[in-house]
Every structure is written in C-alpha cells, then in structure tokens.
Amino acid sequence: MSEPETRTDGKTPALEMGALALLVVVFLIVSLVRLQPFSPTADTASAIGIIVAAGLTFVMYSFLYRDNPLFKIAENLYVGVTLGYGAIMTWRLSLMPEVYDPFFNSPTWGAFWNSALHRTVPIILGVLLVTRLSRKYGWLSRYSYALMIGWGSGLAIPLTVHSYILQQLSSAIAPFHETVAHAAAVPIFSQAWFFELVLPALGAVVVMIGTVAVLFYFFFSVEHKRVGGAISRLGIFFLMVCFGASFGYTVMGRMSLLIGRVQFLLYEWLKIPK
Amino acid sequence: MNIPTHPACGMTLARCLACCGVLLAGGASVSAASAAVPDPNSFQVIDLPSDDGSAVLVLWARPDNEVQGVRYAVEIARSATDFESGGFKTEVVTSSAEALASAKPEYFGRSSQNDRRYFAEISPVELFPPPKWPKLTPERLNELAKAKVITQSELTWALSAAENTLAEDKLSAGEKTDRKWLEDFQGYMEIQDRLNELARTRVITDAELARARSVPWNTRPDAELSAAEKAKRKWFESFVGYIKTEDRKARDAQTAAINRATYYFRLAVLDGATKTYVERDGRPMVVSGSARANLFKWGKLNNLIFSLIFGAVVLAFIEVARRRPGLFIRKIAGLDAVDEAIGRSTEMDCPVFFVHGGGSDVGDTATIASISILSQVARRTAEHDSRVHVTNIDPIVTAVSQEVVQQAYTLAGRPDAYNPDDVALVATDQFSYVAAVSGAMVREQPGAIFFMGYFNAESLLLAETGASTGAIQVAGTDQYIQLPFFITTCDYTLIGEELYAASAYLSRDPRLLGSLRGQDVGKAFLMITIFGVSVAMTAAVVVGWDFTWLMDLFIAR
Amino acid sequence: MVYKRLIPLLLVFVIGLLGFVQEFVPHPLSGQFREEMTMWFRVIGGFALFIGAYSLLHMHVARIRRRMAGWGYSVFVFLGAAVMIAVGLHNGGLGPLAAEPQDRMTWFKWGYENIQVPCSATIFSILAFFMASAAFRTFRARNVGAALLLGAAVIVMFGRVPVSEAVGGWLFGVGHSGVFPRAADAIMEYPNLAAQRGIMLGVSLGVISQAVRILFGIERSYLGGSDE
Amino acid sequence: MTRSPADLLRLRRTRHVIYLLVAAVVVLPYLFQLSMPFKPSSWAEKLYHRVDSLKSGSHVLLSFDYDPASSAELNPMAQALLRHCFAKGLVPIVMTHWVTGVSQVEKLLRDTAEEVQKQTGKPVESGKDYVFLGFKPGTSNLVLNMGENLKAAFDKDFYKQPTESMPALTGVQSLKNIDMAVDLAAGTPGVEMWIVYGSDRFHFPLGAGTTAVQAPQLYPFIKSNQLVGLLGGLRGAADYEQLLKKPADATRGMLAQSWTHTLLVILIIGANLRLLAGLFRRKRTRDA
How far apart are the CA of D128 and the nearest CA of chain A, in angstroms? Predict the structure, then answer.
C-alpha cells in the first residue's frame, strides 16, 4: 500500500513526472472500473467520495517516498478543509446555540432577558479575546484569558491533588500491608505462601523502589553523584523499561490504524469480498 | 414436635430466658421487648455532614441484648401531629453490619463506638416528593373532545392509551403510538393549563399568552402544514423548551425547600408482629431535625491541607530564590546541546525549527514551560544571527510566541531581524498540523529542531520526519506515552518534569528556580511517605495494631 | 499599567480562588456557580475561532503576496476553507440557522467524510511505518539503558499478539503457551507502573506549583511576554 | 549526531525497504484468510463481566471520545459494547466530547441499532432503547454539570428531542443515577478526565477502552481501582468480540497484527545481530 503512487518532486527528472502521471491514470482507470460511479444504478456522490478518499490516501502515503506536487496540493487542501470544518462546527455547536439563539431565537421576552442577563458579559469577553489580533488593543484580551486561566488553575490544584497525588499515594502504599494481611493465614513455604505472599510482596517492592528511584531522578537540587547517582541511574533504568514497554504496547495500536486504511482500500475502493 | 416460643420476642423460651431473663408470664411482653429497645437518650437526628443539604441521619444505639436479625422502623412525619393522623412514612432498617455507623467512616469517622450504633440516611424529598401534574383522566379527555380541542378519533386513541396500563415492552406497535400520542398531548395540555399561571407570575407576557393559546393541538406531520402553521409549531416547541427549563429551576427550588423543612421522627423495634416504640415518659419518643446545606466537605480536608502547605512551600522558596539568586540546579543533559544545535544550523545556514505540541493550550503547564524555553532559543538564534521558525496549532499560543520571539530579538539588539511570519499558525487540527509541519521540515531542511510542550500522536510523525532531514533534534514533553518516541528519534529528550526544569535551567529565573526547589521538597515528602507509611502499615498489620487512621490520611474522597 | 496588568492579575487571583474554594464546598450554590462559569467559557471559547482563522489565512496571504517558494499551493488552503464553509452554510438547502439534516447526505458531510477523515486516518496510520523504521534504527543494545529499552519493547510487542502464544507453546511446551503474554503483563504491571507513577507524581507537583505561580501573578507568560 | 548526506541517503533506502516490508505484511493476511486462537486478557474479561452483570434496563453511559483518525481501533470496541448492551437490554446513553467524532459515532450507533433490529426483530429506537446525546463543548465542566443534573446539561438529545420526559432516561436525573459508564477515548479529553471529574466525584463504576498507546497510561488507575476494566487497542476489541462470541473486524485484524509484530521483532533482532557482528569484526581487526 505504501508503495508510493506518485514519484516526483519539482526538481526531479521528467522520468518521475511521467511515472507520476502514469500512476494517476492507472488509479483513475481502476477506480472507474471497480466503482462504476456513472452507471445509472450507482450512487454517484458516494462513489466519487470513495475515489477521492482513496486518491488522497495514496497521495498522503506518497510522502513516505518523497515530497511531491500532489502531496503539496493535498496538504494545503487538507489544512483548508479542516479550517472550514472547524469554523462551521464552532458555529453550529458553540456560537449558534450559545450566542445567536438565546438572543435572536428566544421564544419569550422572559427568555430574552434571561439570556441578556447571563450571557452579555461572556459575549463581551469573547469579543475581547479577538482583540488579540491587534497590536494596539491586544492587551484587552488579557481579561478573557485571566478569567479562563485563573479558573483553570484554581480548579487544577485540588483536582490534581485528588486524582494524581492522594489516589496514587494511597495505591502506592496499600499493596504491602494488604498482601500481608491477606496472606497472614497461609502456611509458610507452601505454594500458596509463595504465590500469595512472596510474589505480590516482591512486585510491590519493585514498584516502590522504582517509584522512589524515578522520583529521585527528577530531583534537581542535588548533584547526582555517588549514592544519589546510583539511585538516579536506577531511576533511568526504570524509565527505560517503561518507555520500551509503552513503545512495544503502542506498535499494536499504530498497526491497527494501518490495517484500518488497508481495509478501506480493499473493501471499499477495490470492493474485494469480505 | 413444636417448641414453645415466647409470645413477644418469638424465640424459643429457653433462649428468651437466656437473653432477657423475662418472667415466664406471657403478658409481660412489653417489658420483654423493652429490654431489647435502644436507649432513648441515644435516639437522635443529625444533618448529614458534608452534603448539599439533601439528607439527614437518624442515629440510635444498638441495645446490648439485641435480638438476632431484629428490624427497626424509623417513622418520619412532617409534623408531630401527623403521627396520630397516620400521615407519616416508614423506613425499615434490618440490623446488619451495613446498618452500623462503622460502615460509613466518611460520616462518622473511625470510633470504636461506631459498631454499637445504627444509622439511617433519610432523604426527605424521596419520602415527600413534590406534587406531580395530574394525569389526563378519561373525563377530562371527553371534555376536551366536546370542546373540539381534540378530534373524536384522537379521543379514542387517548382513551385506549389512558386505560392501558401494560408495561412498555408488552405493548403492540399501535398501542405504543397511542401512548406516545397521549404523552405528547399531556405535555401540550400541561403547558396550556399552566399558561394563565405563567402569565400571572409574569414568566410570560399577555401577548405571548395569547400567542401560545392560539397554537392548536395538531398531530399532522410538518410536511402537511402551511408555512404559518410550521412557524407556529416551531415557536411553540422552543416555547415549551423554555417553560420546561423554568419548571426545572422551580422544581429544584421546591426540592431544596422540602429538604430544608424540619421533620419529626419516631423509632420502633419490629419484633415479629409487635412494634415497640422507643419511649420517653410513657409515650413514643419524638425527635426532630432538618437537613442543612453544608459549607465544607470534611472528606477533602487532607486535600486542602496538602494544597495549602505545598503552595506555601513553593511560594516560600520563590521568595528565598529572589533574595539569594543562583540557587543550585543539577545539570540537565541535552540543554547544553541547545547552543551546539543552534550554532551548527547557523554554520550550515539552515533555519532552526521550534515546534509546539499539537495539544498546546495557553493554560497548559507544558506549553507555558515551552514558551519560556522558546524565548531562550529565540534569544540565542538572534545572537547567532540565524532564523527561527515557530510552528503553532493554537492561535493564542501563536500570538504569545510572536510576542516572546519579538522580545527576544529586541533583547539581542536585532529587532529588525524579527519577521512575524516566521511564527505562524500552520494548521488548526492535529493531523493537518502534522502534514503542514512535515512538509515544511522536508522543504526547508532545518539544522536543528526543537519539539517542546504538549504532544499527542504527532510526536513520532514529526520527530521521525525531522530525523530523516538529518537535523539535530531536542525534544521535551510531560506526556509520558509520547516520551518513548522522542527518546528513540531525537538526540536529546527532556523527560516529564525536566521540561519544566529546563526553562528554569536556561533562564536562571529565580522565580522558576525557587518553585523548582519547592517541588523537590514535595517529591522528598512523597518519597518519605511512600516508604515510611508502607513500612509502618505493614508492621502494624504484623503486630496487629489498628493503623487505619494512618491510611485515612491519604484516602482521596 | 493598572488596566493592562494589575486588574488582569487580580482577576486571575479572585476567579482562581473561587475555582479552588468551590471544589471544597458541597453547598448547591457552588454547583450553580460552576454551571454558570462553564456556560461563560463555552461562549468565550467560540470566539477563538476568529483568531485561528485569521492567523492561518494571514500567513498564506503573505506567502501569496510575497510570491514565496511554493506560494501557488497556498491557494488550495483558501479553496478548501472557502468551499467547506460555503457548503456548511448552505447546509443542504436549510441554511446556516437550521440544524444539520440527519436523514440525508449534505456536501458538508461529504467533504468531511471523504477529504478530512481519510487524510487524518492516513497520516495517523503512517505511524505504523515510522515505528518500524524508528525501531530498526534505534533499538540497538549499545548500553544497559538501551538494552533494557529494547528488551522491554520486544517482549511487550511480541507478548501482545496471539502468535506469541503459538510460539510460546512451541518453545516451552503447550502448558506454558502464556509465557510471552505473562512476561509482557508483568513488565507493564511492575516496572512500567513504577516509572509512570514516578513521572505522574513529579509532573503533578509541577502542575500544582505552576497553578500557584499563576494565581499569585508570578507566572505571567500567558499574558504575552512584552507589556505594552 | 551530525549525519553526512551519504548516511542520509542510505537511511532513506533502508526506510523504503522497511516501509515495503510493513505494507506487504499488513496486506497479505487479507488475501489469505487464516485464523488464530487467543485468550482474552484479564482486564477485558473484567470489563465484559461487569457489563454482563447489569440487570436489563440499567443505564450505561458510553462516552465515545475519539475521532475518525482512531476509529480503526475504537469503532470495533464501540460496536462490541453496543451489541452487548442491546443484547442484554441495557439502555446505552451515548455521547462524545470530540466535535470531530459526532457524525461517525451517530452513524455507528444507527448502524448497530439497525443491525440488532434486523437480527432480533425487536425495534431498537432512539429515546426508548438508547439515547444519543451528541456533542457539547465544555469537557470537564460538562461532566461536572452532568453530575449535577444530566437533563439540564443536555436538555435536548442529538435529534433535538427534549430529554426531560424521555422514556430511556426515566430514573436518570444525574450521573449519580447511572449504573455504569464506559469511556472509549483516543486522547484528551478522555479517560483521565472522566475519572477525575466523573467517577471519582459521582461514584459510578467506570470502564475504559483506549487506543493501545493510551492504555499503559491507565495502568495506575486500574491498580487503584479507579477503573473496573480496560480494553487496550485492537487486541482489546478482539478480546471483547471473543467474549461476546461475535468475532468481527477486530478479530480479523489480529492476524495482520501478529505478522507485523513478528516482523518488527525480527527487524530489531537482525539490527542487533548486525551491531554484534560489527563489534566482533572491530575487535578482530584490533587484535590483528
């Protein structure tokens, strides 16, 4: 699939230009043959949609081989389209329901005054936000940020303490005495003793040592020498394992994205039977 | 064979004797049960702590000689007299571990007393709900049909639906539509019936009243309606929406009022058939209480204390750093590479790229850190007389970056060299950002690339493309899922907190150095806690002490 | 100075304090207050669109005006945006004030589903290739750290897919077919958890201390570096 | 690490070879269908059983916080979850925090409902058997408001039907009344936001499904029981399909997965062998 459909950029020889043109033609022929967009029975709009989508897919992949005019076009078009889509969605989901309707679509005067009372200030602040664009009046936008960022920071403190510090702290502490309490009854040197006490306890120890070592690695006020150096090296090792692990774990997700595209091209563009 | 049982407590005589030692005389049932009745002085009603005023707690002591599986009846009334008139509700509590106060440490704390008293959580509004709008009765429907509000056929549907009390899933498709119709009509009538009241309370004007009245009930689909009718319907729908929200506000107020009111409580022991009240001077004892909206969530006390102390520590160290500049900060690998990277791209006469993360947002910690790193990078580029390209995805970050870069050039004494178009918003969405930045990187062949801030999936896409251009790459993010990709594709990577430290390291700004020192104190505290408390708790378990209070200090509620 | 700096900073402090406090107050009023603020930010947020659109288009206008290299391509940005906004406002004939019709296709939906979606998905999927090349290029056991990195990566990568069970069974006998998955889980559950907890705790301290700096007007970069 | 143009050229060539290998390995399994047995991960099982244990009529809030870019991974999960809910007669309350996700989530929901309708013959209607609240801006604040009053936060559903008297929402006044929630997320706003602002505050069991990338980040939350279960990436989806006994796209994808992973492992090992060989040769020359 990644075998680029187009092979050229501005400066490369006519040969590659030719290849590019050829591939485009091949692509179009295949599409027309497989999807029959203009046959009376077909749903032309969606058929053409699939062709466009497939074409863009190939063009985007072509970047893997080399930058080229088609990619440049697609890239800029794409940037434009996302901007347009974003604009319309902001209108539909934010500006229309929150700003336009409450004033111009209010069923009763009561409703109108209600929105006037509650929404005037934020709308003014919204307008102030836009002054950011002007060098002269840009400072007015500070009132809007001041509000948003102030609120955000104020809220962030207790919530971070709650879910990232206390929660993590208590679940970092729990495993030890819980395993011990849990396995209090099991006879020593039995299989259960090993699997229910020793192993979990070891795991807990590893986690604790790792957590502490990593925290120490992020200690900035002491030079990492001698003992400190050793601990922070241990911290780095834990970090490395962690990074390796999440890299490995991630591969799966990324591959499935590629699989998603392949499925699209095979099932919807080439219409091969499932 | 049948075992003789005690008439009152329904136990075998033997056990009855054993437990309450009553006389064999069957008539003495009162005294028999009274032995198992909670102590009147313990029967009390308190407001449920740390809540928004929606419930009260009824508490009573567990009798020492409690009968197995006995049940307690909590009777709630709106006034003491309602007990006589029978206008009271009853909540039954079966004696069990869940009913004991010890089951809810967040309400009662951890006291040894707690497994000796029961509690019941009572939410008044659930017992005395606000009145519902009356359902349309067949009589009413007939009237409406006479008044030509609805047609005869509609009447027949409505009646069939009104009489049909089957559950939703037992209905045929036809019956379903009838019921739906009735529900809609009900809604319509509620509004119609309430219009006067709404006008009276000035929620709507008389004009609007008239307008609303003029909208007839009709079930024809939009397609069949004239433009005027369509408009009317559309208006009426949004009108109904408005009225409903108003109603919701009203209902919330009502609920609050119901909860706020004072209620009267009696407690009885249900013992087989007999019901023995907790009595005071011969009559069933009545206590009263009411729910209050509280002002503090006591469960969050540890959170508050940590926030305040840590905040204070940070501020204190910032002050210290102000007084004594030049606090020590350990070397951060990669930051010394910044100059090298910029220098090299100057030699090769290539631009320097500074790429903000796709998740950047001016309120985000990583983004703010990256902005202050940018100011340092821009400063150095200006000094090296080279160009810096800053790519953004967030308009506000763009604006801030522009100011920062301009300032840096001015400080470097080359304000003329600053070109606002070098700091640009290249796209407004994650992957179009990737496309745009990758394209730019390949075309402009930068000598050095900095990826700083809040990155999502774009991290590897950008860094790998950057790597293919042969540029020196320095990255930094606090998004640890993305760190592996920077680690593998960049020459230097700032890991998590190092990103925050970096701005302090480069700028040597005492405020940043100070708060960094504060954070170190915080980390020290965390390390000691994790280690110390784990050991203490484990020891406690082994020795058999009760250290739950220690654990409670760290429970997030 | 007062209007440009002092008042905004005071505003930050006051609103921040309110945000902080309401988190600890169960009283219904604090809930209502939060709802009100949410609505405010929804309203304000909508206006950010204009800044975004302006700064993006501004750059491309400049490119075209200055005839910078590849300026011709910038035209397509305007094309894409213009068409998308046009069909969005047209909204299948219902106009900008109506809700999007659910029952039928509009050209706006068409553009989204056939241009934006495939582009995003494709670019995202390029990661698959990049991970392969990045892994091949940099997973070399040059030192202990690197060895750990690549060891963990290989085990987890392999342990996550069914084939590893087949291989495990073949290597260690049918009874032990779960070896690789279990090894992968172990790595994820212990060292990985430890390191993440470490990073998480460190970062959250950083977040809090920054929030504090912002509230007390010590951190101001978000107001824009220069003052006037 | 300065690189000479020659190095860069060689790197580019190697890259192209690797890209081709990856592409080949992904495409081939689709041309030759094979199958491969595997057993579901414990966390997928936890989530499945949690959902499975709900009584019919319970309300399950499904927040599908992802956009088409990650639909390859998350759509199969969403589909499996919805199928499960409909099969058990649970009432899914579906929403999304991602603007860009709205239309595809709507499509997915409609298609799944129709499909179930076809199979069971019972009608599956919006507002009765499921609710689609659609999108509203506000992320965390929106969740907080839903916790206060869900019907105030969403006074209308996606199809502009008032939620106030919606049969599907009877008994649901706020997040406190829902029986369970599952968040499928591709990033932020996503699971962590739901934990911090949702389940932690309003106390409902929260399950999660994420792209494989996000998953490791959530391990601490599972350990601290802030999550009842987790589906990680396509494998997670495949696990759920297995548990449901309804193999679909995810299961099919696992094959390609297996091969690509194996390829990567081989590549890495190969690279390291080359490294070793290099060291060995250098040592030789030094000895000589």
Answer: 25
Q: C83 vs chain B: nearest CA distance in angstroms?
A: 17
Q: Assign residue B53 a region: left if phi > 0, alpha if psi is -120 to 50, beta otherwise?
A: left
Q: Which CATH class is domain B27-124+267-290?
A: mainly beta
The residue among B442, B454, B541 with the most chain A CBs within 10 A of its CB, best to mutate, is B541
What DSSP line would sit under D32-52, residue for residue?
S---------HHHHHHHHHHH
Query: Is C224 in Cβ contact with B399 (below 8 Å)?
Result: yes
Where do you find CATH 2.60.40 in chain B?
Answer: 27-124+267-290
CA of A60: which chain B residue's CA is closest?
B435
Among partner residues C25, C29, C206, which is closest to B500 by beta-carbon distance? Answer: C206
For chain D, the structural domain boundaries read 42-247
B529 with A250: Cβ contact below 8 A: no
Touching check for B480 and chain D: CB below 8 Å?
Answer: yes
CA distance B553 to B299: 10
Q: Where are the domains of chain A?
A: 1-105, 183-263
Q: Three-state SS string across chain A, please? A: CCCCCCCCCCCCCHHHHHHHHHHHHHHHHHHHHHHCCCCCCCCHHHHHHHHHHHHHHHHHHHHHHCCCHHHHHHHHHHHHHHHHHHHHHHHHHHHHHHHHHHHHCCCCHHHHHHHHHHHHHHHHHHHHHHHHHCCCCHHHHHHHHHHHHHHHHHHHHHHHHHHHHHHHHHHHHHHHHHHHHHCCCCCCCCHHHHHHHHHHHHHHHHHHHHHHHHHHHCCCCCCCCHHHHHHHHHHHHHHHHHHHHHHHHHHHHHHHHHHHHHHHHHHHHCCCCC
Tell me whether 0.95 is exceeded by the ipTM: no
Q: Which chain D residues are Cβ-neighbours of B464 within 8 angstroms? A: none
Cβ distance of C43 and A122 shorter than 8 Å: yes
Nearest chain D residue to C28 by CA distance is: D148
Q: Please give, rounded to a whole number of angstroms, the shortest distance from the CA of D47 to a CA of chain C.
A: 17
List, for residues D225-241, the tens digit of each pLDDT value: 889 999 988 888 989 99
Give pLDDT tens digits for A218-268.
Answer: 999 888 888 889 999 999 999 999 999 989 888 877 888 898 899 889 888
Is B51 in CB contact (< 8 Å) with chain C?
yes
Output the pTM of the full model.
0.83
Sequence-ordered list of residues with C-beta below 8 angstroms from that of B460, at least 6 positions apart, any chain: B482, B485, B489, C127, C130, C131, C134
Shortest distance between the Cα of C121 and any Cα of chain B, in A, equals 8
B334-338: list long-range contacts, CB under 8 Å, 24+ apart.
B334/B474, B334/B491, B334/B492, B334/B493, B334/B494, B335/B492, B335/B494, B335/B502, B335/B505, B335/B506, B337/B472, B337/B474, B337/B491, B337/B492, B338/B376, B338/B377, B338/B380, B338/B450, B338/B474, B338/B506
Report whether CATH 3.40.50 matches the domain D42-247.
yes
Instruction: Tell me whether A148 touches chain C (CB under 8 Å).
Output: yes
- Per-residue model confidence as pLDDT tens for chain C (228 residues): 788 889 999 999 999 999 999 999 999 899 899 889 988 988 998 898 898 899 899 889 999 999 888 899 999 999 999 999 999 999 888 888 887 776 677 899 899 989 998 999 999 999 999 999 999 988 888 889 999 999 999 999 888 777 787 788 888 877 777 788 889 888 988 999 999 999 999 999 999 999 999 999 988 877 765 443
Among the residues of C139-178, which ranges form H helices? 144-159, 163-172
In this structure, whether the domain defined by B337-507 belongs to CATH 3.40.50.720 is answered with yes
Nearest CB to D216: which of A89, A167, A245?
Answer: A245
SS (H, E, C) D53-68: CCCCCCEEEEEEECCH
